[in-house]
Amino acid sequence: MLYMTLIVAMFVLIYKRTNEIGYKTAKRRFAMELR
């Protein structure tokens, strides 16, 4: 259980660092695809 939390936390940190700029555009694109 502890290992999973650590892995998820590290993954979120890396993901945030790489996609900090494209996060809003990706979110907007996803919302448009849902429609």
Question: Which helices and strands appear, and what pairs or packs with what?
Answer:
Elements: H1 2-18, H2 23-34
Attribute tags:
mainly alpha; about 35 residues; about 85% helix; about 0% strand; 2 helices
Walk me through this protein's architecture.
By secondary structure, the chain is mainly alpha-helical. It has one domain. 83% of the residues lie in helices and 0% in strands. The chain has 2 helices and no strands. The protein is elongated.
* Distance between the ends: 37 Å
Enumerate the spans where pLDDT stays under 50 for 5 or more consecutive residues. Answer: none
Tell me the fraction of residues in β-strands, as a range. under 5%
The biggest sheet, with number of strands, parallel, antiparallel or mixed sense and barrel status, is: none
Give me the number of helical elements: 2
Helix content: over 70%
> Order of SSEs, N→C?
HH
Number of domains: 1
Radius of gyration: 13 Å
Q: Mean pLDDT, as a whole number?
A: 79
Q: What is the molecular shape? A: elongated
Secondary-structure-based class equals: mainly alpha
Number of strands: 0
